[in-house]
Amino acid sequence: MPGFDYKFLEKPKRRLLCPLCGKPMREPVQVSTCGHRFCDTCLQEFLRCGVFKCPEDQLPLDYAKIYPDPELENFQKPGTWRGSLDESSLGFGYPKFISHQDIRKRNYVRDDAVFIHASVELPRKILS
């Protein structure tokens, strides 16, 4: 499955987009020889076509040199986290996963990686 089809409040940073599908990366992997990142599925589909070169720089590609992105490997999938809701859990003021009720109360917006405090006030009607 290629990258995420979510609508974001802000345009995702370019380095978070998969060069193959153009969407925010899902299950990102990194080619250790050149450092380029792709959705795991997108890269697998690309390699299935028989092209064993990095899609970005055309350098030879070896399966043994493809790893889960070390920068993102500690991110948890929604629903798997069972810790406390201590807001210091990510180190920059926001919990990784919180309930929908807490999202409404605290005015957070979810982007599947972290929670970002919304900078706009939403009408109470929408939040109820």
UniProtKB/TrEMBL annotation:
Gene3D superfamilies: Apoptosis, Tumor Necrosis Factor Receptor Associated Protein 2, Chain A (2.60.210.10), Zinc/RING finger domain, C3HC4 (zinc finger) (3.30.40.10). It comes from the Eukaryota. Coiled coil: none annotated. Keywords: Cytoplasm, Metal-binding, Zinc, Zinc-finger. CDD domains: mRING-HC-C3HC3D_TRAF4. Residues 18-58 form the RING-type domain. Its main location: cytoplasm. Pfam families: MATH_2, zf-C3HC4. GO terms for molecular function: tumor necrosis factor receptor binding; ubiquitin protein ligase binding; zinc ion binding. One of its GO terms (cellular component) is cytoplasm. InterPro entries: MATH/TRAF_dom, TRAF-like, Znf_C3HC4_RING-type, Znf_RING, Znf_RING/FYVE/PHD, Znf_RING_CS. One of its GO terms (biological process) is regulation of canonical NF-kappaB signal transduction. PROSITE patterns: ZF_RING_1 (PS00518), ZF_RING_2 (PS50089). It is found in: Cytoplasm. This is RING-type domain-containing protein. It comes from Sciurus vulgaris (Eurasian red squirrel).
